[in-house]
Amino acid sequence: MNITINGKKTTLAENPARTVESLLEELDVAQRQYVTVELSGEILERDAFGNTLVQDGDALEFLYFMGGGR
């Protein structure tokens, strides 16, 4: 399976049951509870991570929004 993660082409073993949630675990993404996921240009709701399948050719962005400043 070929996907793009944060602008980087990535090849993963085929897994037809791979969800966004399982991908985050598989890649050991830091602070998963705070990550926002954009899948092929659409921001996913957090409750959709567990049932949204990752397909060959998908583009994902893992985003962290930070507060602060003045």
Automatic annotation (TrEMBL):
SUPFAM superfamilies: MoaD/ThiS (SSF54285). Residues 23-70 form the Cyclic nucleotide-binding domain. Pfam families: ThiS. It comes from the Bacteria. This is Sulfur carrier protein ThiS. It comes from Oryzomonas rubra. The lineage of its organism: Bacteria, Pseudomonadati, Thermodesulfobacteriota, Desulfuromonadia, Geobacterales.
